[in-house]
Amino acid sequence: MSSIAEAAPADWHPVRCAIPTFEVEFERSQAVFIGKVISIEKDADRKVFEFEIEKFWKGVEESKVVVTVSENPRFQAQFTKGGRFLVFAKADEEGGLFDGRCSRSKDLDRNPEGAEEDLDKLGPGKELEI
Length: 130
What we know:
With 130 residues, this protein is mostly beta strands. The chain has one domain: CATH 2.40.50.120. It has helices spanning 4-7, 22-28, 116-122; strands spanning 31-43, 46-58, 64-70, 84-91, 97-99, 106-107. The protein has a five-stranded mixed beta barrel with strand order 1-2-3-5-4. A hairpin with a 5-residue loop joins strand 2 (46-58) and strand 3 (64-70). The radius of gyration is 16 Å and the shape is globular. Mean pLDDT is 86; it is low at 1-13.
């Protein structure tokens, strides 16, 4: 019986992720929020997602936030238009926000139970004053 690693090319490596603890991810994140994806733009190997903010815990000053995700054949962004997500977004070199693999960001529509622990730790959150 052969394993996948034995049958795979020598330069192939399985996609592995060490999802950070809640505490580490919260500290690393520039913005943490729940938002609904209202638009998606593709730019080469990047997708740009615009979120309408429902509530936030840090780093949000506007009702809409843009998050960029770099994609490749082994990783595609989980965000979908119209979907609600808990997002842990990091800051890039230009001051924008990005997310990627090995993130604690969660799909609240498809798997709300998967976010319960993080939402409990985050507490009630804040809403923007409009």
